[in-house]
Structures are given as C-alpha cells and as structure tokens.
Amino acid sequence: MGAATAREFAAQGATLILADLDRAGAERVAEECQSLGAGTVSVAVGDVSRSEFCDETVNMAVESHGSIDVLVTAAGTIHRADSLGTSDADWQRVMGVNIDGMFFMCRAALRHMTAAGAGAIVNFGSIWGGVGSAGSTAYCVSKGAVHQLTRALALDHAEQGIRVNAVAPGEVDTPMLSSQRAAPPSPEDLQALADATIPMKRLAQPNEIAKVVVFLASDDASYITGEIVHVDAGYTAR
Question: Engineering a disulfide at 154: which of 27, 49, 184, 225 sits with its beta carbon 3.0 to 4.6 angstroms away?
Fold first, then answer.
C-alpha cells in the first residue's frame, strides 16, 4: 500500500523520499515513480522504530527540497498470535514499527510543518484499530494507538494549519495478508475469506487505498482533520 501510494503521488508530479528497510524494493519503487512523472525520488534506508532514522530522513527532505509538505506513515508489521503466543520481543517489534515509528516520523515532520504553518499527515490505521480480531493481539493494540495518535495530533496542531488524518483499510490483497500463516492461502482461500467477511465480497487492491491517502493529503480535503477514514467495503458498517 505504501508503494501504491508513492506511485499515486508520482503520477501527480510529487517529489518523493521513500523510507524502507528494503533497499532493493525501495529502489524498484523509486524507478517506477520516476517513470510515472515524479520529481526527484530519493531513497532512505533504515528502521522507523529508531527515532534517529526518522529525524535524519525528515531533515534530509527539508535540506534537499526546502520543506516537507506531506508525510505518509505506511510502515507496518504484524504478529499473528494471541497474548500467550506473543513474546516480549514480538510485542516490542510490532509496537516499535506500528506506533513508535509512526510517532517518531510525525514528530520529526511536525517540527518543520509547525514552523511553516502548513502540512498534511496521513497515517495508516486499520479496521482492527476500531474493532477487535482474535489471534493478532499486538497488531490490534498498535492500530488502536495509531487512531488515537492521529486524533491527538490533529487537535494539537489544527490551529497551525496542519491536518492529520488516518486511513483504515480493510482486507487488502498485499503480502501481509498472507504472512505468518501455517500455509499460504490460495486464491480460493482468499475469495472464501472475502465471501465470509466482506460485504462487497472482494479484497481491496492497494491502489484503492492509495487514492484515498492522496485525497486526504490534498487541498481537496482542506476541512478534514482528526478523521479515521475506513476503506473497508462496508466491513465496519455492521
């Protein structure tokens, strides 16, 4: 979803910095973005759970381009287990990426956005941040924290011209959906999941989430802040 979001921004001519642990993957996405008409596309390789990396990446954006106008925090990880199957290390890793890293990135960007009196942040939440799910305790807790962080930051900075929102995807056809399972689900398994749980009876594609992220970052969403925008085919309407 982060890659799809980068491609959507690129198609509108944005200048991008892609932060990722995976250099090869980030560089591949950077090449795709360049071919779609992006301005400069840079890659920052590191771990968002380290506040130093977040500060360095945001500072690089400002030093290179003069400002940071939009921050999208899309890094995420999951551990599929209940509390008894979640070790200290499992818990700390999920929280470190999903909420600590998001906070560190937001804080780093806000230092510059508040000085400029403008900016938009879009965080990646989840349907599991608002409703529970068995078997993914740490993930659900981390996404609930994302939603509350989004609301708190929006209220903190509304008078400074900065908008902070979150997108909350439902089931999306990404590698994470199939990760950490006893056996990789087949297309038939995924369709059965959709039939059983999703009102529209299909998984989302990453670009469907990305389009909402780009909207929330744009001036078309100028009166929206503090919102958790569900893109879930009606899942949480029940």
Answer: 225
